[in-house]
Amino acid sequence: MPQLNPGPWFFIMITSWLTLSLIIQPKLVSFISANPPSNLKSETQKTIPWNWPWT
């Protein structure tokens, strides 16, 4: 069965993953800036307990 022979596609898979992880990914990550932390206070909302009809 030819699909069990890793010869033709294994090298292509390894080179594509290495290309993606070593060359393309650092270039893409450099364009994405993280959101700066906000100085706004987080307001905690008062929760109301749910009254279940069967309890």
Describe what you observe in this structure.
- The protein has 55 residues and is mostly helical.
- Helices cover 45% and strands 0% of the residues.
- It is elongated.
- It is a single-pass membrane protein.
- This is ATP synthase complex subunit 8.
- Pfam families: ATP-synt_8.
Tell me briefly what this model is.
The protein is mainly α and 55 residues long. The protein has one helix at residues 7-31. It starts with 6 loop residues before the first helix and ends in a 24-residue tail after the last helix.
Indicate the topology.
Blueprint: H1 7-31
The stretches of 5 or more residues where confidence is low (pLDDT under 50) are: none
Structural class of the secondary elements?
Answer: mainly alpha
Overall 3D shape? elongated
Q: Using DSSP, what is the number of strands?
A: 0
Report helical residue fraction: 40-55%
Q: Counting H and I runs of at least 4 residues, what is the number of helices?
A: 1
Measured by DSSP, the beta-strand proportion falls in: under 5%
| CA-CA gap between termini | 62 Å
- Regarding quaternary structure, what we see is single chain
Order of helices and strands: H
Provide the descriptors you would attach to this structure in a database record:
1 helix; transmembrane; ion transport; single chain; 55 residues; membrane; elongated; mainly alpha
